[in-house]
Amino acid sequence: MQQIVYFIQKYKYFLLFVLLELVAFLCTIQSKAYQKSQFINSANSFTGGLLNMSNSVFEFTSLKKENLRLSSENTVLKNELEKFKSSRFLENKKLTDSNQHYISAKIIQNNFHKRNNYLTIDKGILDGIHSDMGVVNSKGIIGVVNQVSNKYATVLSILHSKSKINAKIKGSHYFGTLAWDGVDYQYSQLRDIQRQAPLKIGDTIISGGKSLLFPEGIPIGVVHDFKKTPKSFDNIKIKLFNDMSNLGYLQIIQNSDKNEIEKLIRQND
After folding, report:
1. Which residues, at least 6 apart from 144, have a Cβ–Cβ distance to it below 8 Å?
2. Domain ranges in the chain?
């Protein structure tokens, strides 16, 4: 209490000045319609700014939750679609199960500007992830699982010198290999397409289904440019559907028949 009294005594003239200024300001606001309206507008503007800032923060935090929800729903829908596509009624009226299953994950680190690029995801061995599993999202192919720990995994991006993806022209049986030249992360190159293929600008390129990593029909991109010689196609440039610099959530493809097929192939070698 003594401290308060001492403070008032020490700064009494300054406090009196502030009080008089406040009284004069309030009198001006009350007596002058223009000043009053200006004050109210300023107060509304300030309050509106705070509300907009608060709403922006809320929307940002909500967006992260919404993205996670959409990714989870997308994974569920892909699993249901895979079951629908691969299920067939047999002569004994039994239903076969799908050999494809999708596991949702989030990217926590992404490289796209190097010659050999990797991604890191928040799922690992404990979630059923192992090396050599295909990685996709709703727009198309992203890469292949490389190294795995209990809780995390790295993905060899399609923007990598060792990435070789079996691909084909949609609506045809002409196959080739998707490989990146290391120049532009928005484009990849399609190689080894037969000379007689009816290739044209704007054609959609999809996974060919000739590997155990990706089922047939997963989107990759569209033909952006190419050169045609009497013997072959050269420099087939594919504009990727995915913006590889802006990735968030993805799905890992789990092929339950992969080990069995690989074992059978090794027996023939």
Report:
1. 132, 133, 134, 135, 155, 156, 163, 213
2. 102-268
